[in-house]
Fold:
Amino acid sequence: MTSAGRETPARATTSRRAPSRRRFLLGAGLLAVPLLLALLGPFLAGEPGPRAASFTLGGGHWLGTDFVGRDVWRQVLHGGRPVVLTALAATALAYAVALPVGLTAALTHRRLVEELLMRPLDVLLAVPSLLLILLVASVVTPGAAGLALLVALVNVPDAARIVRAAAASAAARPAVEALRMQGETWWRIAVGHVGRSLLRTLAADAGTRLTGVLYLVATAAFLGVGVAPDAADWAVMVDRNRTGLFVQPWAVVVPALLIVALTMGTNLLFDAALENPGGRRARKGRHL
Structure:
């Protein structure tokens, strides 16, 4: 029996898990809509119909037409894949470079190696990300792949610093020193022990980093970097149709909301996954 006003352990555990479950479901729902539109949209778009003369609703155009008479709904179906794929590719590329650089800098015993790895990244970190992308775009014209490489490049410095800081903390533990004394290889120590200890830190960073990458990709596309001015792209749609916002709001509001849903859903999912670390193991230990 329990006294009045006090929760039982089971009820307290359920009350703590409920917000996490709701956050996960909300994040999954928000993320599913733009992802499904990005992946399946081109297959659902069908053949283009005749262009209308001006902004209009009806006549087979569910969301009306844009300023040149193209069907907005069809542009939405085609416009998600460039944004989503470019953002995901840029995030993956950034971590593909930052992980080995950060781990090597944290685990090396040679100060010169650490300086050679990290100091050039500090110089790159001092340049504003969007400014660097625009400077490169003024010299060469990057496509979607080039834009992904540029966005990945500007995200490598701070990602590498996060990896290095977390790896240095893990490498200072007695277990790592014991592995070194046992003659374990650098790869076994870096990946098998230190790398596994970084998973939660990387998961927490990935949510905010993907949001920042989406912002950069959308802003670059908004400015005409990496995509054609008339491309079917959610960010380009916002820029192209903003002058007619009060005449035809759907051409701006729908792609903008899809980008917002993508970022919010991603962060909510990561927040739900990271909430109450080790909660299940801790509860199991209390019952033993």
Remarks:
- The two ends are 20 Å apart (CA to CA).
